[in-house]
Amino acid sequence: MMSEKQGSISDCGDDLFTSLEEPLLHHAGSEARMAKSDEHMLAGSTCSGRRARDSRYSVLVFPLLAALLLVAAMLCCAVVFRMASVLTGEEMFMSSPSTAARHGGLRASYTPKSKEPSEAELWPREDSPWNESAWESLRTAFHFQPPNNWMNDPNAPLFYNGWYHLFYQYNPKEAYWGLISWGHAVSKDLIHWLYVEPFAMVPDQWYDENGVWTGSATMLPLLLDGRGRGPSITAAATTSLEKEEQKRRWQQRREGDAQLIPGIMYTGSTNDSWQVQSLAFPSDPWEEDGLLVQWEKVADNPVLFPPDFINVTDFRDPTTAWWDDKRSLWMMVIGSHLRPTHTGIALLYQSADFLNWELVPHKFLHLTQGTGMWECVDFYPIPTSGEPRGLDTSVSEWAGGVKHVLKASMDDTKLDFYTIGHYDTESLTFTPDEEELDLGSGFRYDWGRYYASKTFYDPLLQRRILFGWVNESDTRDDDIIKGWSGVQSIPRQVWFDNLTQNSLIQWPIEEIKSLYNRTISLTSFTLESGGIFKVEEAQGAQWDITVSFTKPTLHVEQGPFMDDDSGGAVAPFFMGCNQNEILSRGALGPFGVSVLSSEDLQEQTRIYFYRLFMQENSTSNPSWKTLVCNDLSRSTMASHVDNGTYGGLVTVLQDEDELMLRILVDHSIVETFAQGGRTVITTRSYPTIALDRLANIYLFNDASTSIEVRSLTVHELSDINIHYIN
């Protein structure tokens, strides 16, 4: 079904496209809205003029028109025949009459750029090591993923009226990217999820026809309209009295006294592939169940067009907004880049009413040359003292001290980098604490296959929660056969590392313990050089494993592990966690844990420590680091999937006498947390033998000296059995 804008000018034939381009050509804020308001009048006058001109030539062209009509009729017949065998837009979105009714008859269409092979053409595949049962064994049991098809970025996670909400980029038709809509799930504990129907948003307007892309939620204070019901959040305050009332409401929000409802700002890809920002609100935020099933896009969409100094396809993924008390303005960041210098930028916008936005005079919150396009930017405060906790995004001052985290997903490398620094509320700029740890050269959330992450503040438990997309590392043909692609990581709590004073800690949320159903514990034993230890009665593919080793004290290597000429903190990843480096044994490793292992060890995913470094010219409190790696080189007998080795350095403090790993194993995903979560690695494994109860756990020591195992704890985890909410 066409949008109102499209329907009003559709009688004008070719002028439809001209009229829709009008607002895109005037992309600077207020001009864009003026262009949209004049759209109907311009279209009508154009049609009238055309009819007047055509009347003078009707006698001459009538025979030609008759012939054209005949050709058109033949083409229509062909189209109707084709549609009989192609899934329509309505069928894509409406799997049942009840779903269609709740959508209000919504229709959308999608035409793939190229014909995809059908399942019948791909399955069974002679060169595939998996059958249908094996593919089912590789599907995760306690990570969130939709029942089928493609999923990528986590979107707008939030807590509202007793429920956690997770939205996500979703293709409702196929197991590859396309027809991007917003899926929706809810949970009481961030572990046990329920699918919500219908989809939260679908590409049904001209401004998001090519996809409802990534966005964020902001909890907004409720301003009542004349009926005492319904959000008038987007109504601009005009009088001084209204402005004072608005300011009071915003202050109530800060103090937790105002009723809040979520507003979503998201990127839409228009019918001309421009990237624009639009708003949506829950249709009925007062519904008793708090599920936020229905969402409405505001009539004024889009509310932001790309500024004229960037490319129109480089303007996406707005952040959660924060309230600036000093200016009584909302602030928000959108990612982009400056193509001539390949500079990644965080564009900073401000608004008094959450509807009318303008770029701040200096344009940027932060920028870094040579980093390319910044996607899925995130910006949030963290307290620097006290117990691990989070802060509301609008907090800029805290009694125990506060810093800010700026994170960007790098489109060039598909890696999530973050930096910690100072947000100046006067100049509205962000400055990293350490220049060498700026975005693109410093810390990563994850050293594996992890991207497009998003945090939110959990007001229930006062913590900052992180989600991230974990993509597949098999082939697209495999994804089409199995019918699904993409997993969300286990939600992680993030907080400032008070010990290193320059990085974050990431740790699986406590609620994962609700899945524990049996435990195996061992303490104090030695692994000799070359030794292998099988963990008895640990057959399966769903585990939470914690192991600690006594830190070796001899043969510590001294060297510049942070070599600026080699790319800063990133260099050791390329120099250390690769097959050429780990072939030789050393005094420290490799030693660690082997998971998803077949009985004969033909297949195994190895997680290990390797080598220990102490920085040259260190002070009395030297900086020690070790490599931690996820090694996929023997993870599968299949030859066409990723078999690389992922990893990076992790800090080991001088007074820490143990090396610790926590490993979450869920069939085809392995998440590793080293040294209490200072370094995290997420990878995918696709065994052909070590499936389900044929998968084993081993400890191994390939170091040249013996290693002391202090403790080993293995928890088997239950399925979460996601289903649709009634």
TrEMBL record:
Residues 99-124 are annotated as: Disordered. One of its GO terms (biological process) is carbohydrate metabolic process. Residues 113-124 have a biased composition (Basic and acidic residues). Residues 531-716 form the Glycosyl hydrolase family 32 C-terminal domain. The chain crosses the membrane at residues 59-81. InterPro entries: ConA-like_dom_sf (IPR013320), Fructan_Metab_Enzymes (IPR050551), Glyco_hydro_32 (IPR001362), Glyco_hydro_32_AS (IPR018053), Glyco_hydro_32_C (IPR013189), Glyco_hydro_32_N (IPR013148), Glyco_hydro_beta-prop_sf (IPR023296). Residues 143-508 form the Glycosyl hydrolase family 32 N-terminal domain. The keyword Disulfide bond does not apply. Pfam families: Glyco_hydro_32C (PF08244), Glyco_hydro_32N (PF00251). PANTHER family: BETA-FRUCTOFURANOSIDASE, INSOLUBLE ISOENZYME CWINV1-RELATED (PTHR31953). Belongs to the glycosyl hydrolase 32 family. This is Beta-fructofuranosidase.
